[in-house]
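Hi all, long-time lurker, first post. I run a small reading group and we've been trying to get comfortable going from sequence to structure in the token notation. Rather than ask abstract questions, I figured I'd post a concrete chain and ask someone more experienced to write out its structure so we can walk through it together at our next meeting. Sequence below, copied exactly:
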Amino acid sequence: MSRRIVLLSALGLAYATAGRAADYDPLRVPEGFAPEQHDLVVRDQDRDREIPALVYLPKETQPAPVVLFSHGLGGARTGCKYLATHWTARGYVAVFLQHPGSDDSVWKDVPLLQRMLAMRRAASGANFKLRAEDVPAVLDQLKDWHADSKHPLAGRLDLSRVGMSGHSFGAVTTQATSGQSYAFVKNRYTDGRIKAAIALSPSVPPRGDPGKAFERVRVPWMLMTGTRDTSPIGQQTVESRQQVFPNLPAGDKYELVLHDAEHSAFTERALPGDQVARNPNHHRAVLALSTAFWDTYLRGDEDAKKWLQGAGPKSVLEEKDGWRTK
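-- Answer (accepted) --
Happy to help. Here is the structure in token form:
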């Protein structure tokens, strides 16, 4: 083969590769897609505990990467459906957990004036431990369901590619199970099956050195917060939420800070005390960046990685939004 032909072939490959990267769009989904849903219960006999889980299945029937989601304090498995629907449309199995003791049962039957006290009590160390232990229990059950030929999830789960995510108390749960350390106990709740994690409204530990808490995070993390992301429970401020990122070890770490985004911006409903109108582009940015992240680290998609680490994020963000990587 002549040198000219080799050069032309190389140029053609370069153009084709560039074209594929340019065509990557994390917001593209099949028109009219509606995920198959299964409302299931994980029974953890060792802890005498039941964990409800709402599972969304993609159209494809071959084993697909699995993304878990942990709700915030007082939430439920039915929340943040916009995330579940989009991720599933992109070919992921989305498993939305519900954590008894810190879910919507905390406030539903409580008089209005007593709800805040009930919520504060539920934001306890005991419930944190229950949540962190719910995650491996669910992963164990998913393995069994995948292997059970009579189960609706039979043969549908690729548990070698698992992502973990959550909002607020769910972000605390996510951080615990994907690498955060606690006091003198290193990686106490870390589950090695989790390959990547997204924390919406992340938290620094209430006590101790954040650098020590996050120094052993080994998997890719994406953090999402806002310039108004505070909460009356948990003592987290806008500044403290943004202290997680600089204390993470370098390598495959990302942070999004949405301008004027309140704590509720990552959910589908307003929260008491909200002060600004919701910005529709916030959900668009969350969907685009989270999808590119999953595609990069759960699918090994090089075009997604180029989009994520290149100009892609700026194409979905507004001028005052913050984005940084390391």
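A couple of things your group might point at:
The two ends are 43 Å apart (CA to CA).
Residues 2 and 8 are 10 Å apart (CA to CA).
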